[in-house]
Structure formats: C-alpha cells, structure tokens
Write a structure and sequence with these properties.
Elements (H helix, E strand, L loop, with lengths): L64 H20 L10 H12 L3 H12 L5 H13 L3 H11 L5 H14 L8 H10 L5 H10 L6 H9 L17 H5 L4 H5 L7 H14 L5 H7 L5 H14 L2 H13 L2 H14 L2 H7 L8 H18 L5 H8 L5 H13 L6 H8 L3 H4 L13 H16 L4 H17 L6 H10 L5 H8 L16 H16 L4 H9 L20 H21 L4 H9 L6 H11 L5 H13 L5 H16 L3 H4 L12 H14 L6 H7 L6 H11 L2 H9 L6 H12 L7 H5 L2 H12 L3 E2 L2 E2 L2 H11 L12 H12 L4 H13 L3 H7 L4 H15 L18
C-alpha cells in the first residue's frame, strides 16, 4: 500500500526505452586522458566517445579487450605527459604549461574569457588548450567559436581534435551548426576509429540524410551506444537516427537480423503513436527479444485502438514476472500514466494475492511518475467503482498532480473508518492504521492551497468528513487542521480557539509523563489559528508565548536538566513554538517587538526562541530586517547565551533575506567569528543575493584559507553564474580537501523550502549556478557536485515543513503552470527546476506543448533519463528537522 511517510519517487531512475547504461571509457578530466594516446585509441580527444560493443545492441555496450587495453595505455600515457610536462609533436607548450593557462583563463570574467578561448581555438600548437577552447566556446554557444570549431577543428590533422570538434557541435545543434555538414562529411571519409563515432553522431544530429548508411554502420557495430557530450554526459538518442530518414524506410528494417536494429525500429515507430504502424508493431511485440517487444508495446499503448490493445494486453498477460515489469516500465517511460492505466486491464484475477501485487505494481509506478496526463484516465477508472483501496490510490494519484477532480473521492475516503471499510481476510494490513486518511487530508490541504477559487466546492465536499475525523480522535491531526485552515473553514474556528488555549491546569514542576494531550494539541492549533487570521488569536498567542514571564523557574535547556522540570519544559517549548508559528502564519508586523523581546530573554527556552527567530522573518519589514543585522553585530560577546542570540538572528536573515540588509554581514566572514556563525552569515549573504558592489569584498576573502569556504559558499548561492564559476576556479590553487569542506557546508545549506524561495527567483539562481560550475575544471575534473547536491535536496521536498513551506505537490503544480506560461524567463527556469527534481511525468507532458516549451522539456526529459555517470563523491543527505 501507499507509504504516507515517504511517497517520494525513487532517486534512481531505470533505463529509458532503448537508451543504455554503460561504463564510461574516459573520465571527464583535464588534461584529457588520451593526451598521449595513439590515433587508434577510441574516445576522440578525451571528452567522451565510445568503446566498441560485442554487437550492435544499443542496450549493452561491452568493451572489446583490445579497446580496454588501448584506453588503459591512453590513461597512463596522458598521466605521464602531465607529470613530466612533456610536449607532444608540433606543440609549443607542455601539458603543465597549458593547464596553467587554462586555470588562469577560468579566473577571468566570462567577457574576458571568450576572446582568449577563441584565440586558443585557432592554435594547433596547443592541442589540450584547443580542445578545452572548443568545449568552453560550445557551452557558451559562442557564434565566433562555432566558426573556429569548423575551420580549425574539423580541418585539423589530429583525429583527437576532430573528434572533440564534432562533439562540440552537439552543443550548438541544428540549425546553428548546419553549415558544418560539408566539413563533417569530408572528415567522415577520412576518419579512423578514434573520431568516426563522434563525426557520425554530429552528422546524425544535423539530420544529414546523405550520411545515414555510414551512421547506421557505426550503430550496428555498437560504436554509437556510448557516445558522449563534451562534459561526459550521454548523447545517444535513437530518435536522432529516426530523424535522418523517412519512417517508411525505417519500418522496412523491422525484420532485420540485428536485434538492435529491430529495437531501434520499435522505439522510433512507437514514438509516433501513429495507427499506420499498428501491424508492424503487432509483429514486433511478439519478437523473440523482450527488449524489442517492450518497445513495440509502447507504440501499441499510444495507439490504444481495439486492434492495438488486444496484442498489447496479451503480451502483458503472457509475460512472466520479470518480463511484465519490463513491459510496464516501457509503458511508463514511453506512454506515461495513460499507458499504465491501460495496463490495469491486464491484471490477473487468478488469485487475490496476484491481483493485489500486479495492481499495486502499477499504482506504485503511477506514483513514481506523477504524470498530469494520467488524470483523465484515472477519473474514468474511478467511474468503474474499483475496490476501496484502489479507489483511494487513484484519487491520490490525481491529487498529486494538483487536479481538483480528486476531491469527491478523497472526501469520501475521509469519512471511512478503516476498521469498517476493510476486513481481516482481504486487507488486514489496511486496518492497522489510518494512513490513507492522513495522506488524503494532506492532499486536500495541497489542493486547497493550489485552488483558492475552489474553496466553496472543497468545503462542500470535505469539510464535514474532515471535521468528524479530527474530532473523533484523541488529538486532531495536523493535516486535517491544515486543510480546514487553507480552505477557510468557519466550522473549525471554535475548536481551534479552544485547542490553542486549553482550560486545564498548566503543568507544574514534578509533573510526571506523559505530557497532557491538551498541551501537545495546543502547539499545532496555535499555528493553524494564525493561518485563519482570526483576530481572536492575537491575545492567545501573547498569552502562550509568555507562559513563564514571572520566571518561577529556569526553562533553558540547562535548567530543564534539573529534576522535575521535563514536562514543564516540554509544555513551555510547545507553547513558544506554537505561538511563534501562529505569528508567522499571521504575518502581522505588530508581532515584531513581541518576538524580539522573547528572543532576547536569555531565561527562555532556546528551542522555542530559535523558532521565534524563524517567525520573525515573516513579520519584519525591510527596515526591521536591517535592525536584525545590527542585532547580529551587537550580540558579539563570546559567551554561549550571546552566541545563541546571534545565531538565532542569522536564522531570521536566512529565511527572509533582504539584500540591503544582508550586505551588512560581510564583516562576519572573519577568522575571529565562530565557525558556525560564519557559515550562517555566508548563507544569509548568499540567500539575500549578492550585488556587484559586494563581489570584490567577498572575492578578497577567497585568498584566506580559513575564510575560503564561507566566501565561496556565499558566492555559489548568491552571485551570478559567471562569478560563481570564477569563485570555484580559485580552488585550483588549494589542496583537494578544501573542496570537501565546501561540499559539506553547501550540503547543509538546503533543508527548508518556502514559497518565497521560488517567487523571488532564489531556486532559479541556485540551479543556474550549479549548472554553470559544472563546466569549471578544478584539479582536472569538472565540478558536478553542486548539481548533484542541489538536485537531491530538491527531490526531497515532500511535506509541509512549517509556516510558508512549500510541498512537492504545490511546487510541481506551480512549475508546470509557469512552464506552460508566456514568460520566457519563468518558462526556462521552471523546466530546469523540474529537471533537477527529476519530475519525469511533468516533463513528458510538457514535451507535447508547442514551440519552445516542448523543445526545452524534450531535452530536459532526455537528461533526466540519461544522467551523467561518474564517481563524484558528495556528502550524505542532511535530513531537515522542521525548519
């Protein structure tokens, strides 16, 4: 059944239809590993390339022993060339000299880099720099660079240079690089095994129909399966081959003796969804190769006609357990949610256990995919009146993509007691908890937030069952309160007021566990009372925040260690956290002095004061945020109580940074300041956004080994992409462990995500910078780790995480709307963020959008399904503890 504690899709992606997962022949290092390789070594220039497979199957890509040996010798030769600083024939600079020049260039602003890269692109006497120049110019899509790549790269006498030039053309694509076709055709005729795959693939991408036979010859030999872009990420896409010829010519190869060719035909015909190819796909779905058959199943699922569905369902029904899983994966990644819903018709009813397993398998895949196009099919499925659990699962899948049509079914489920809905024979596990209603309430809350104009409908359907649910339990569940507050329920207000201000006696010293339920409930009730913005909440917040104003006893963490104060301390902490959250939800500036007084009272509980600092960020004005910066400087004494207040106020500045205010924190990047305070100051500076005037001051701190991590962190999250690139390039002059310190600190930066982070463009800036530094070489390796860490952090957005936090459902929906909008900047940013979040279903849906949106989504989906393979080490994920 659905796991309500972790319903995030797996971070590990299965292989996409027809696209391989191969070991890379060469690492993305600089200087290239084949610096001293013989012309026969594969991998053209060391920026990627291919190794020959044992056959033409684009799913396998095994290396022949001879190529492994050549690659190994190439690595040794390249390393030796760097170590001894030798010069290759016709080169005027040693590898070490070229590496130094490359590092010097990377420290320059982009506008100053480009002329230098163009100059090196034109020089055949420094092969390593020339190849690096091709890469940098291509990543920038520099028009002058394109001309140099064609005129100097494709005409080089060095096959390594030709191979890298061909790879660089992939970054430009068609129509920008169409003028390179004649030179590529000439090179193809002269190519050897080291550059032919790259040249052939460049021609394929430029749709050079005259090269089709030569490209297919490379494909049949398995030379294209491992082709890479210049950053080492996979480049092979079977759709590119289909773009070189008519589909009729491709379909004629359906009986080819090569399994890989038949799989290519099945993949590319399936992509069209054209009924014209039904008969061909029916033939291929019964192919002796399961990999050919499952690609054909995708096409039949897209066509979905009566004649197509019979063979598809038959293939699914006859498949064994492993083969069935492969068919379903192909439908998931090729057709999307609609294909998986169609597959429900193939579920076996031979035994209850088999029926349950196969149905769950499909619904789990639907959850992993979260494809908005599946909502229509799931609504139709609900109309068939499935069993209660699958009815619930279908509604959850609809709600997860932000579709309001899930509400009636979710409301129905909120009114069902699991002990009465399920029995011990058919569904004993579903009687053990109330998780289905917990998750349903969470989905209802997300839908209420996403569709405020539908509040009347939401309340008409779900208010009564949710109210009955939360009042029938010893304590109301927070998800139910969140839905009712977000939907604007008036019925819940009397309950919230009562729960937020319990009438019972407040715990006193000596009280024994357990903590009275009323005081546990009050914390959550205070937050949601603030969400309703009911004025009656104000005096309750003040009352609960100041529960110990008479200082009868010490409720600091140290004080609570004394005997008999545990329950008192828990209750006081709960009241402080709840009231602070209530103020944050209310967002009233009048709360500023109240919270400041509470924060600076050194006798209050530290944990609830930190929560008050978080809440301060949501009630303070811009001018008051400048006052918070002043307070950070004022509480500068080294004793623990002052240090806590200083760190606490930095928390305020991190969650609602104001650039004019956070600029005043640069002086905290100082060796005399506590390390954790420095880290928090760097984050606050970065989150606030770094202006041009701030850059020289922070850059100067990169020169100090003790301050480098914090300065680099601030620039990496707060500066523009060009500045972030230059900041990371300075690490070429450090020991490797210095970068490890930065990785750890960067990894600890992301945990709480607010709606403002997206609205203000913060997330877009973080993504842009992470992508930019991936093209910076430090100690000869491209810096992919910020991209990996940020992508993982974005994928872990899941649940409500405190006031103003954003859930994955909300974020996904908003990104999807912006991706389909008319604002070019928002569209591009939204699709990049969706790619970082690995939102396969949304990207699949967006591929069908016309124009730029469809093209961007198509490339993003390809990147998600074909991640760059590597051994980059990143720190373990940091689990968020509230905010």
């Amino acid at each position: 059944m659905h796991d309500p504690t972790n319903d995030r899709a797996s971070d590990r992606l299965p292989p996409p239809p027809g696209v391989p997962r191969f070991p890379r022949a060469f690492a993305a290092k600089w200087p290239p590993d084949d610096d001293a390789a013989s012309p026969g070594a594969r991998g053209g220039g060391g920026y990627g390339g291919g190794g020959a497979g044992d056959d033409g199957d684009f799913r396998k890509g095994r290396f022949k022993p001879a190529y492994v040996l050549v690659a190994f010798l190439a690595v040794i030769g390249g390393a030796a060339a760097v170590f001894f600083g030798v010069k290759n024939t016709n080169e005027t600079m040693s590898s070490l000299e070229q590496a130094k020049e490359r590092k010097d260039i990377e420290l320059l602003p982009k506008t100053e880099q480009m002329p230098k890269w163009r100059a090196w692109a034109a020089r055949p006497d420094a092969v390593l720099l020339q190849q690096e120049a091709f890469a940098q110019l291509a990543w920038s899509k520099d028009q002058e660079g394109l001309a140099l790549i064609v005129s100097k790269g494709l005409t080089s006498d060095d096959h390594r240079v030709r191979g890298t030039a061909a790879q660089a053309l992939l970054e430009y694509g068609s129509p920008m690089a169409d003028g390179a076709k004649p030179a590529l055709m000439k090179d193809l005729a002269e190519a050897d095994s080291s550059d032919k795959p790259q040249i052939a693939w460049a021609l394929a991408n430029l749709k050079s129909t005259e090269a089709f036979d030569s490209v297919m010859a490379e494909y049949r030999q398995g030379h294209l399966a491992e082709i890479q872009k210049i950053d080492g990420s996979p480049a092979f896409d079977p759709e590119v081959l289909a773009g070189m010829v008519t589909l009729d010519k491709l379909a004629a190869m359906a009986g080819d003796e090569s399994e890989s060719v038949r799989q290519l035909v099945a993949t590319d015909l399936s992509r069209t969804g054209d009924p014209k190819w039904t008969d061909t796909l029916i033939k291929l779905v019964t192919d002796k190769s399961i990999d050919v058959a499952r690609q054909a199943a995708v096409g039949l699922g897209k066509i979905a006609s009566e004649s197509a569905m019979g063979p598809l369902l038959s293939a699914l029904e006859k498949a064994d357990k492993d083969s069935r899983a492969k068919f379903l994966e192909a439908l998931r990644d090729g057709v999307g949610a609609k294909g998986l819903v169609l597959a429900l018709k193939s579920v076996s009813h031979d035994t209850p256990d088999r029926e349950k397993f196969q149905t769950k398998q499909i619904f789990d895949m639907l959850h992993e995919l979260e494809d908005p196009r599946g909502a229509d099919a799931l609504v139709d499925y609900l109309a068939t009146n499935p069993k209660p659990h699958w009815r619930t699962e279908a509604a959850l899948r609809i709600a997860e993509v932000g579709d309001i049509r899930a509400v009636p079914t979710l409301a129905w489920r909120m009114g069902q007691d699991p002990m009465k809905l399920y029995n011990d024979v058919d569904d004993p596990e579903l009687r053990r908890d109330d998780n289905e209603r917990v998750v349903s309430a969470r989905m209802l809350a997300d839908l209420a937030i996403l569709h405020p104009d539908q509040s009347a409908m939401l309340l008409a359907n779900a208010e009564a069952p949710v109210m009955d649910w939360i009042t029938s339990k010893p304590q109301p569940h927070a998800n139910g309160l969140r839905f009712l507050a977000a939907a604007g329920s008036k019925a819940v207000l009397p309950k919230l007021l009562a729960w937020a201000d319990p009438k019972g006696k407040f715990p006193e010293p000596g009280a024994q566990p357990p903590m009275p339920a009323a005081w546990e409930t009050a914390q959550s009730a205070l937050r949601y009372l603030g969400w309703t913005k009911d004025p009656r909440g104000w005096p309750i917040f003040e009352k609960q925040l100041n529960r110990i104003s008479n200082k009868k006893y010490d409720v600091t963490m140290e004080g609570l260690m004394q005997g008999g104060l545990a329950i008192v301390g828990m209750a006081i902490r709960a009241m402080g956290v709840g009231a602070s959250d209530g103020y944050a939800q209310l967002g009233d500036p009048r709360a500023y002095p109240i919270l400041v007084k509470y924060i600076e009272d050194k006798e209050n509980n530290e944990q609830s004061r930190v929560e008050a600092c978080f809440s301060l960020s949501w009630v303070a004005t811009d001018d008051e945020m400048k006052d918070v910066v002043k307070k950070v400087h004022d509480f500068n004494k080294p004793d623990p109580k002052n240090s806590l207040i200083r760190a606490c106020y930095l928390e305020t500045l991190i969650h609602r940074p104001v650039p004019e205010a956070t600029a005043g924190l640069i002086d905290l990047l100082n060796k005399d300041v506590d390390l954790e305070v420095r880290h928090q100051a760097a984050r606050a500076i970065g989150f606030g956004g770094i202006t041009g005037k701030m850059i020289p001051q922070i850059f100067d701190k990169l020169k100090d080994n003790e301050l480098r991590t914090d300065a680099a962190l601030a620039l990496l999250i707060g500066a523009d992409s060009d500045t972030a690139d230059r900041a990371l390039a300075t690490y070429n002059d450090t020991q490797p462990e210095a970068m490890e310190d930065l990785k750890v600190t960067y990894n600890q930066t992301f945990g709480y995500w607010s709606d403002k982070n997206y609205e203000n463009g913060d997330v877009s800036r973080w993504v842009e910078n992470a992508l930019g530094v991936a093209h910076v070489r430090v100690h000869d390796a491209l810096q992919d780790w910020p991209k990996l860490i940020l992508s993982r952090a974005l994928q872990e957005i899941e649940f409500d995480n405190g006031p103003h936090s954003i859930t994955r459902v909300q974020f996904r929906y908003r990104l999807m709307q912006d991706a389909k909008g008319s604002n070019d900047v928002k569209r591009t940013a939204a699709i990049e963020i969706l790619k970082f979040m690995k939102e396969k279903g949304v990207l699949m849906a967006l591929r069908q959008e016309p124009g730029v949106t469809g093209e961007l989504a198509k490339q993003a989906f390809f990147d998600v399904m074909n991640p760059k393979l590597g051994s980059e080490h990143i720190p373990d994920a940091v689990k968020a503890d509230n905010h």
